[in-house]
Write a structure and sequence with these properties.
- The structure holds 2 protein chains of 2 kinds.
- Helix content of chain A is 28%, strand content 38%.
- Chain A has 1 helix and 9 strands.
- In chain A, the strands form 2 sheets. In chain A, strands 1, 3, 5, 6, 8 and 9 form a 6-stranded mixed β-sheet that branches. A 3-stranded antiparallel β-sheet of chain A has the order 2-4-7, with no helix packed on it.
- In chain A, a hairpin with a 7-residue loop joins strand 5 and strand 6.
- Chain B is mainly β.
- Chain B has strands at 4-7, 11-12, 17-24, 46-53, 56-63, 72-78, 83-91, 96-105.
- Chain B has a 5-stranded mixed β-sheet, with no helix packed on it. In chain B, strands 1-3-6 form a 3-stranded antiparallel β-sheet, with no helix packed on it.
- In chain B, a hairpin with a 4-residue loop joins strand 7 and strand 8 (96-105).
- In chain B, 28% of the residues are buried.
- Classes of the chains: A alpha+beta, B mainly beta.
């Protein structure tokens, strides 16, 4: 009789603490896992070379009603001459089942580093583009899009 | 399957940067979808696109499953010499579809 309230209190404490711990551990973990996928894909492509922010512009609609086909335009500031051009642009996603969406390989013949395509998106996320220049430097840019109907089920 | 559509200007002035569009009809089956009986629909995608001007590579792209069906790609080329542009799509099994377009540079 005397130790029953004590037991009750500890059980309640245990449950709330446990519930809180579960909430804290599950929510950010999934976000970290997706981010880790993107970072891994980036490392697979470019190693540990430093990536600077800037020079790359990603253009997506602010709201995409349908994640099955979202128009994407990437442009990179570059003179596109024989000695200074964009070699490669990689498009990465932090939320799709496969983080690498596509790679565009450009040459000095391309004249202008502007490429468009249509991509699939499994939910609201910030699409990232990494450009590799002919001198080996890496630049990145990103844009977030709200996806109303995700392609996650059928991607 | 021959659902290729190209948009290439017939003529261009020397040094002009022209826009080129290339589309091919293809389901780009991602391999993440399931059919009505729950079975996984096998992946079937085009993995490589290349465009060259008389043998010199202008633009290439590696496609992954997150490229939407009927892949449309828009890129640019600096017009320097007249010639024939060859567009080539290769799928994951090595099957190739191609088409050509000519451009006259004045």
């Amino acid at each position: 009789m005397t130790d029953k309230p004590l037991l009750h209190a500890t059980r309640r404490h245990f449950l709330t603490a446990g519930g809180g711990a579960v909430l804290i551990s599950t929510l950010p973990l999934s976000a970290f896992a997706a981010e880790a996928d993107l970072l891994k894909a980036r490392t697979d492509l470019f190693g540990d070379r430093p990536i600077q922010e800037g020079r790359v512009t990603v253009k997506l609609p602010p709201i995409a009603e349908n994640g099955h086909s979202v128009p994407l335009t990437v442009s990179v500031e570059s003179p596109m001459t024989q000695d200074d051009y964009v070699k490669q642009i990689a498009i990465l996603s932090p939320r799709n089942p496969l983080p690498l969406i596509g790679q565009f390989h450009l040459t000095p013949l391309s004249g202008k580093a502007v490429v468009s395509s249509r991509i699939r998106m499994s939910g609201t996320q910030a699409i990232q583009a990494v450009a590799e220049m002919s001198d080996g430097s890496l630049w990145s840019g990103s844009m977030e899009t709200v996806v109303t109907l995700a392609a996650c089920v059928v991607l | 399957m021959t659902g290729i559509r190209l948009s290439v200007p017939d003529t261009a002035t020397q040094g002009e940067v022209v826009e080129i569009k290339a589309l091919i009809r293809h389901p780009m089956e991602s391999g993440f979808r399931r059919g009505s009986r729950g079975e996984v629909i096998p992946r079937d995608i085009i993995s490589r696109f290349e465009c060259d001007l008389d043998g010199a590579l202008v633009f290439a792209s590696d496609f992954h499953p997150a490229i939407a069906a009927n892949p449309l790609i828009t890129f640019h080329m600096k017009a320097q010499t007249s010639g024939t542009l060859t567009f080539r799509w290769t799928d994951q099994n090595g099957e190739v579809w191609s088409d050509t377009a000519s451009i006259t540079v004045t």
